[in-house]
Write a structure and sequence with these properties.
Layout lengths: L3 H6 L1 H10 L5 H41 L3 H36 L20 E6 L12 H7 L3 E2 H7 L6 E2 L1 H20 L3 E2 L5 E2 L1 H7 L11 E2 L4 E3 L4 H6 L4 E4 L5 E10 L18 E11 L4 H18 L4 E5 L11 E9 L4 E10 L3 H6 L1 E4 L5 E3 L1 E9 H11 L6 E2 L2 H7 L3 E2 L1
Parallel strand pairs: 4-9, 8-14
Antiparallel strand pairs: 1-11, 2-3, 5-7, 6-7, 9-10, 10-16, 11-12, 12-13, 13-16, 14-15, 17-18
């Protein structure tokens, strides 16, 4: 959530930035924010003046009573009672205005950083780096869904029977490869200084609000209506919310966390060849890395996170590219985001496997996540997160890109985790 100060410090700049993010009616929304804030401040000022008047009158009552001026004391009491009644009305209007202002701010996305490219959609994203070698596959190379069936690794039909489309069942060496990737990613995160946490996979409304999934993305999450809990779309949500409503000491920053969870996304309306097999699921495994940091260090943290994810793809021997997302393709909450994609040689297409984002103070303002600086003043933290990595498309690319006439080769870095070097 944007702060009022962010807006008032550069109203025109904020409007231009929101338009870069393709936020409709930015000027109108900011005008409404400013009007509500002016009303809120006027009401608060009136309330403060009235309270000061009540305090002064209360002192007079005591003086009048001491001097035996009963009539003046009664008149002062009546005046205090009248002001208190007025204050009830003002307080109610102030509460209503503050609620309306907060609700409006929640509908306004984060401001993109200056380096975010102009653009409307994924076609306008900028490739900033490519790496890895594209494999030479056999002429009869198969897509991962056919490989999964051939080697009895993943059963998509059985998943439909048990739950529905988008809930595959991993079997045998497919399950072991999945577990190997999870352990590899967690071990690499641990080596990089991320403290491992096993969070819940259900969150309450406050947690969804804190990281920006609510009220923006409620339709994308599975909702347990009886208990009013949501299945998490990513471990970012519970991990970041650990520090909701907290004031941290500067020396404790940056905080680095990682977590493996199952993730759940409704992906309503998704269909077609681009979502076949593991390309898009309703339930999937993912390792998330999260940082809570000081503003002046968050860009360096972002670079470190990008290097960490790139290192994972290099160790997995996968061809990859890194894209800086344009304003129109960025998430609601991000200020700067890079996507990692791996190339699927069998499908002849790039598959997104990670997004690494800096949220500036946007999430922290919603979370009320602050730190106490050297001057003992509290400031909003910066929050960052990234997939390190999401498993389905990584697994798809590994199966497809490593197929040979003898079977599917396992990258060297995973052999000890798997206990085998070939699927045949």
């Amino acid at each position: 959530m944007l702060t009022i100060r962010q807006i008032t410090d550069d109203i025109e700049g904020v409007i231009v930035a929101l338009e870069k993010k393709r936020f409709n009616n930015a000027r109108e929304a900011i005008a409404q924010v400013l009007a509500l804030d002016e009303k809120r401040r006027t009401l608060q000022n009136t309330l403060d003046n009235n309270l000061a008047e009540v305090n002064a009158a209360s002192k007079l009552i005591g003086a009048f009573m001491k001097d035996g001026k009963k009539e003046e004391a009664e008149q002062a009491k009546a005046n205090v009672a009248s002001i208190k009644e007025t204050n009830k009305t003002i307080q109610a209007e102030l509460d209503e205005t503050t609620t309306a202002l907060t609700a409006l701010l929640c509908t306004i996305p984060n401001l993109p950083y200056p380096e975010v490219p102009e653009g409307k959609s994924a076609e306008d994203n900028v490739v900033v780096k490519e790496g890895g070698q594209h494999p030479q596959l056999p002429t009869d190379a198969l897509a991962h869904w056919d490989l999964a069936k051939k080697y009895d690794l993943i059963d998509f039909d059985l998943g439909v029977k048990v739950t529905g489309a988008g809930f595959p069942i991993y079997k045998g060496k497919g399950a072991r490869l999945q577990r190997a990737l999870i352990n590899f990613f967690l071990d690499e995160a641990n080596k990089a200084g991320y403290a491992e946490i096993i969070p819940p996979t259900l969150i309450n409304e406050d947690s969804g609000y804190g990281t920006g999934q609510l009220p923006d993305k409620e339709g994308q999450m599975y909702h347990s209506t009886i208990d009013n809990l949501y299945l998490i779309p990513t471990a970012e949500v519970p991990l970041t919310n650990i520090y909701r409503d907290m004031i941290l000491e500067e020396k404790s920053l940056p905080i680095k966390m990682c977590g493996y969870t199952q993730c759940f996304r409704r992906e309503a309306g998704s269909y077609g060849k681009d979502v076949r097999g593991l390309n898009r699921l309703h339930e999937f495994a993912k390792i998330e890395i999260v940082r809570i940091d000081k503003p002046e260090h968050s860009k360096a943290s972002h670079e470190e996170m990008l290097a960490h994810v790139e290192g994972l793809l290099q160790k997995l021997e996968l061809p990859y590219r890194i894209l800086r997302l344009c304003g129109g393709d960025m998430s609601f909450t991000a200020a700067l985001c890079y996507d990692f994609e791996v190339y699927s040689e069998a499908q002849q297409r790039w598959l997104e496997v990670s997004s690494v984002s800096n949220f500036d103070t946007y999430q922290a303002n919603r979370l009320k996540c602050r730190y106490r600086n050297a001057d003992k003043k509290t400031e909003l933290c910066h929050t960052l997160n990234g997939s390190a990595l999401a498993l389905p498309r990584i697994l798809a690319a590994l199966l497809e890109n490593n197929q040979t006439s003898e079977g599917i080769r396992i990258p060297k870095v995973l052999v000890d985790y798997c206990g085998f070097d070939l699927i045949n």
